[in-house]
Amino acid sequence: MKRGTSRDIRTANRYEVLRQIIAASPTSRQELAAATGLSLATVATLVGELLDLHMITEVGFEDSAGGRPRGLVAVNASGGALIGVDIAETYVHVELFDLALNVLARAAENMRPGESRPEQVVGHVAAAAGSVVAQAGVEAARVLGVGVSVPGQVDRATGVSAYAPNWDWHDVPLLDLLSEHIAYPLYLDNPLRAGAVAELWFGAARGHANAVVVNLGTGVGAGLVLGGGLHRGVSNSAGEWGHTTLVLDGRPCRCGNHGCVETYVGAPGIMQNLRELSPHSPLLHPDDQTATIDALAAGIAAQDPDAVGAVRETARYLGAGIANLVNLVNPEVVVLSSWVAARLGEPLLEEVREAVARHALQRPLAASRIVLSPIPTDPACLGAATFALEGALQSVGQRGVRRTAPARVRSRIAPAP
Amino acid sequence: MKRGTSRDIRTANRYEVLRQIIAASPTSRQELAAATGLSLATVATLVGELLDLHMITEVGFEDSAGGRPRGLVAVNASGGALIGVDIAETYVHVELFDLALNVLARAAENMRPGESRPEQVVGHVAAAAGSVVAQAGVEAARVLGVGVSVPGQVDRATGVSAYAPNWDWHDVPLLDLLSEHIAYPLYLDNPLRAGAVAELWFGAARGHANAVVVNLGTGVGAGLVLGGGLHRGVSNSAGEWGHTTLVLDGRPCRCGNHGCVETYVGAPGIMQNLRELSPHSPLLHPDDQTATIDALAAGIAAQDPDAVGAVRETARYLGAGIANLVNLVNPEVVVLSSWVAARLGEPLLEEVREAVARHALQRPLAASRIVLSPIPTDPACLGAATFALEGALQSVGQRGVRRTAPARVRSRIAPAP
To answer: Rounded to a whole number, what is the distance in Å from the CA of B30 to chain A's nearest CA?
Structure first.
């Protein structure tokens, strides 16, 4: 049996303590022990490590009833900076965060249809990353790392985009390409896992052992939080709910299968739902997903029958697909995330809740809530930045120095030391 | 965040050490530490506890190159007995095991169609349990517990069958009813989880952090082994893959949904596949699932076109459904288990592998193997007995005495002490 090693457990505990401190600063070691279930001695050790890293600071004392005053710690927001990159089919978003994961600067680049060669994408990322560092005026040495989210299957260890179906990328060495432009430690993963980690640290999955984060964009998928942590699967491919069959022999999917969930509830699938309902609907912008989803959102607000019908039809598929997740995973919470969910919002959520109730078994249905992501910014950027934070925490104690671990360090953006 | 408590971790480690000892007796503390990743000190403590419980014994020493001789331990097969009960739609199987989980006695009762009132089922279980204890001549005090597997949704804590769709049971207090007849500690769960635990301890999931055990019987489902342990979900309902939608608006299912996986690959679904292919096939025994599946198995061996066609059609659905599990969970191994899988065997397996390859994404597909359960006996009995073993291990240290924890002790079967 491959078990978690004691180092894995220490790393997970370190995440957990920092997560709590970020969520509720200032706080005491005693409160942290109560909140995490860890012993006071373990908490004290981990707090000591985080203090040494300047990720948190001592901020005073609080009285404890009759006992001696308790030391308080808080996240040291300015103790470092993190960059999160969300590469999507239609845009690149880059955000720079402080250690409390507040956004200090953001930059966006639009990707035109067809603009999908790796060098083009890398160029957009490099430009936007340079922009946020410059905007925020952050000292280069304070940037702890850059997390990059790219759609599809990724190999984290090698930094390779193994397969991105929208662009038909195969084995693109994305981090190597990015390291030509970006001198900070780089971490690669995909939006399903970035979104799930964002919800786990800062959003609707906080405090839940089992949660599913449904990512609704051009592609769709489900980040799985199981047993209090991210479930990656054996080859970091878990969560490809978008490519599970919902309608056997249904619509053809880019992955080669038919009837995948994504073909009905991804942005192009929603456009198809609208087209089947009303082929000449003025809401339909044939070559523009974003414009069509925006038109649907506006249309629902105005009670436009095409919009109401298309969203209802989408929710019918989405509800059946989410019921599958509820029945299989039995989560406490299902979070609807990413740009399509954000734009269609409450009206979509209500239809989805009704549709899930029609399909799911009563017992797991009763145990789960379905909510919209409460994260106000781009969850994939936030999650990607969190991967960079986790990377920085993971390297603690590995060589006694931080910032040495992943290091693909040839420079453009980082100024000379 | 609800974390595992240190007691949970100690219990999991205790399972792990005993699992290793059962798998490879005799063994040394040093080998156990290497196999489990636990420290030698932790292993020594856990081995001491298991020795105190007479679950294992010291069996001598082996030379260690140059060091002092290492003590060897082995499972103490006769240190206790466990009973596993598999209640299915068409039968009740009861097996009595020693502590090495060897079968010492078995009994089976057939359930006639319509014979589904809780008192009837309980009567069958009590008769068969009495039979195995008598056959094996085991002293009542040595029976550590009885694990009971019943289809559908169960509430383990209260011992209630919350919902059994085949019999339309709702909130049947099964363990209370059984405790009128059986004096040993009773543990309730369902065949998905029993089958998964059996594979995890003794079968194809041993040594894998992520595995899916696909249970093919009258009902179907998927026991999930994730992160090295059984995934139960928030209300012990996880794994209801049989009630995930594969064909939206497809065949009506007993659960109220349409197009559930179970309606195509459960035994009645397979009969329907055969009926649609060849309405008057002599292989079809309209009121007898077991006879039909047996006829299909014999028919495949004889290259009967009805049988070949029906199995291929079943594999088409099953392959799409298993590809969904591969894409979503990204397991190392998918195990086909239970009586339908056992009877249709290799021919079904081969068709399923081909069908999965047509539907799954390449990366998770390449990472996973699909195999038949290697467990030679009834996996649900074995898994249920394992729950009883886990229950006995879990109660260690809770009050300093074992056999006190679940205890629904009114007696028929157990002789007076």
So the answer is: 16
